Automatic annotation (TrEMBL):
This is Uncharacterized protein. It comes from the Eukaryota. It comes from Diphasiastrum complanatum (Issler's clubmoss).
Length: 668
């Protein structure tokens, strides 16, 4: 959505997004050279499909479109409709996700949406009649309907191409071939599942409308998705970034730097999101309240929205938080990765590093001393696919429960991919989670974390699966790093660890464990050698404490906080605004004019550090006079950040601790 402001009576040039760009500077010769090197790395990594595969995908989509058109005519005939209505009956296929954005790779699935008429139901017609038609086709394999998902989907392969097919049932009797699903009226009188299904296509199309240069956006997004996968932070289902999250984050950077080319955009991506103060939202346009009364993301009205840790808001009505799966633990992992990548990009700009360093894989199975292993098995491939999908969809709940039941003092880092033991017969895979003491939590002698009840609760929720069959099994256990199965390592070969000086560690006695002896869970040490464990104390601890204390507790920082009153409607408000910046919540509330005024500074030509200050200053929190004490407290907790809450919780005395069948004993 384009916006414009007025300065001295003159209309300023239009821009995309909710704020003016941070910089409109174009690339230098060095930027062009770095972009060429980046594109070579992406090509050599095999991220682009061949021409033959592109043609095959087009043929598959054409064949699928023919199939659903035949399906809708058959169900119209079965329901006794007139010959004319049978003749006019139609359904239409739309694409969305990475394929629609133009950033798909050779093995990427195609996200598709089937839009059908009002007389074609989801349960009886889509998941029953269409399922039968697809099952009878030789080209279709691995057909798997997921009817109980948040967005119901039919998964299958068509001539070897993976397809995820959603369904939206419109209120129209006939679906026209030139149907425009971007119109708000398309959402009228349809069920909630159809709204969610349509939202994928509507969001994808809106993203492409809101970026200044689609080709630069695509190259940057392809790079960032590759980085996220290599660093283990690409998996929406486990609480990391998914495809739409990455697209929205990249699109916002394209808006803030409209004339930048991919190498610049990648660097600015990490520079901005290293500085971003979550949970302030990332938005491409102002939130559209709409006219249909559908719920939209609004933390002022919806208590659940205030609990989101990393809101990334979709630009199409109804606007939603696309990253509601993010937990405190996964947010911490991602912010650490943003920081690492930012340092590498700074070295790249000084010709002290190469692009390959950015994409080095994260050594997950060497990064922690303690892991949680979730192993699932089934008797045949069909049962295994269903069972794995169900368990995987519940893993995020295990992460959240561990955080909750340990008062945020135990961090749980899920590995985003399943690991398969190819030597075993039948369906088998395992999911792993790294466990460590959360940053900022002080070490206490004899401290233990008892999460047996947490795991039992998780297993109970998984065993509620309505389609359970004999042979579908789940085993949860704790393993030390040295006990990890060999199949998690490349080639099944465990890496040789260097010898280290002998240290003496005290252990507390405990009872039997979940199938393993109860073992110690030392604090992991991201960024240092695996075996080093450093207490948060002394000068380093004071720096950490100062970093996460809010301004009102520490006093004035280099960005001195000023207080100034604002008028919003008839209400008197107070906002904390840093000198060149406005609150993100201001433009949520319609205070675009006030927001624009505070951003109209000459940011072009700023240094990297000054740009960071400008980005940081985009965000502050607003407290309404007259808010209830509970609401005010909620806002203050959100504004203070993750580690402030941890500091408070660290003072609490932990309960008894020992995690059977594998986890958790005393922390070093």
């Amino acid at each position: 959505m384009a916006a414009s402001g007025q300065v001295n009576g003159n209309v300023s040039p239009q821009y995309l997004g909710v704020t003016e760009p941070i910089s409109t500077a174009g690339p230098t010769e060095a930027d062009h050279a770095r972009t060429q090197k980046l594109e070579k790395v992406l090509v050599s990594a095999g991220l682009y499909e061949s021409q033959d595969e592109a043609v095959l995908r087009e043929e598959v989509l054409g064949r699928l479109d023919q199939t659903i058109k035949l399906w809708v005519k058959q169900i119209s005939q079965n329901k006794g409709f007139s010959d004319q209505l049978i003749q006019e009956a139609n359904a239409k296929i739309f694409t969305f996700g990475s394929y629609r954005l133009g950033v798909h790779g050779p093995s990427t699935d195609i996200d598709t949406l089937c839009v059908g008429p009002r007389h074609a139901s989801r349960e009886e017609d889509f998941f029953a009649e269409l399922y039968k038609m697809l099952a009878d086709m030789e080209e279709v394999t691995e057909l798997h309907p997921v009817t109980d998902a948040h967005v119901p989907v039919m998964k299958f392969k068509f001539n070897g191409i993976s397809i995820d097919l959603l369904y939206a049932r419109l209120s129209l009797w006939v679906i026209p071939e030139d149907l425009d699903i971007s119109q708000e009226s398309i959402l009228r009188n349809i069920d909630e599942q159809s709204v969610r299904s349509l939202n994928g296509c509507r969001v994808t199309d809106q993203i492409l409308r809101l970026v200044p240069n689609i080709q630069h956006f695509r190259t940057t997004l392809r790079c960032l998705k590759f980085w996220a996968k290599r660093r283990g932070v690409y998996s929406n289902v486990t609480g990391f970034l998914g495809g739409v999250n990455c697209a929205l984050l990249v699109a916002r950077i394209c808006q803030l730097y409209p004339n930048a080319i991919p190498s610049m955009l990648v660097s600015r991506f990490f520079r901005v999101y290293t500085q971003w103060r979550w949970p302030n939202p990332v938005m491409l346009c102002a939130i559209d309240e709409g006219t249909l009364g559908l719920p939209v993301w609004d933390p002022r009205k919806n208590p659940r929205d205030r609990m989101h840790h990393m809101p990334i808001i979709t630009p199409a009505y109804p606007c939603m938080n696309s990253s509601y799966n993010v937990s405190l633990s996964t947010l911490r992992v991602m912010t650490d990765e943003f920081q690492r990548a930012n340092e590498i990009c700074e070295n790249l700009e000084m010709n002290k590093a190469e692009w390959n360093i950015l994409f080095e894989p994260y050594p997950f199975f060497e990064a922690y001393k303690n892991y949680l292993q979730v192993e699932i098995t089934a008797l045949d491939d069909d049962d295994f696919r269903k069972w794995k999908g169900w368990v995987e969809s519940r893993l995020r709940q295990l992460t959240l429960k561990i955080e909750k039941h340990t008062y945020g003092m135990l961090q749980c880092h899920p590995y985003p991919c399943e690991v398969v033991d190819s030597s075993r017969k039948g369906g088998h895979c395992a999911f792993f989670m790294g466990l460590q003491r959360s940053q900022g939590v002080p070490q206490q002698e004899g401290q233990q974390f008892d999460i047996r009840a947490t795991v039992d609760e998780f297993r109970h929720s998984v065993n509620m699966y309505m389609l359970w069959k004999p042979g579908m099994e789940l085993h949860v256990s704790h393993v030390r790093r040295k006990q990890l199965p060999a199949y998690v390592f490349p080639g099944g070969l465990r890496p040789v660890r260097p010898l280290r000086p002998l240290t003496v560690v005290s252990k507390s006695a405990s009872g039997p464990a979940f199938g393993n002896s109860v073992s110690q869970l030392p604090k992991s040490d991201s960024g240092t050698t695996d075996e080093d464990v450093e207490d948060i104390s002394g000068e380093g601890g004071e720096r950490l404490k100062r970093k996460f204390q809010p301004a009102e507790e520490v006093g004035l920082t280099k960005r001195q906080t000023i207080r100034e009153p604002m008028n919003v409607g008839d209400e008197r408000m107070t906002t904390s605004i840093s000198p060149a910046v406005a609150s993100t919540e201001q433009f949520i509330m319609g205070e675009q004019e006030t927001f624009d005024k505070t951003l109209k500074r000459g940011l072009e030509g700023y240094s990297a550090e000054e740009e960071l200050e400008a980005v940081d200053d985009i965000q502050t929190s607003i407290c309404r006079k007259g808010d209830s004490a509970e609401l005010l407290q909620s806002k203050l907790e959100q504004a203070s950040g993750i580690c402030r809450e941890q500091s408070r919780l660290a003072a609490l005395k932990p309960g008894s601790c020992s995690f059977s069948n594998g986890v958790v004993d005393e922390l070093e």
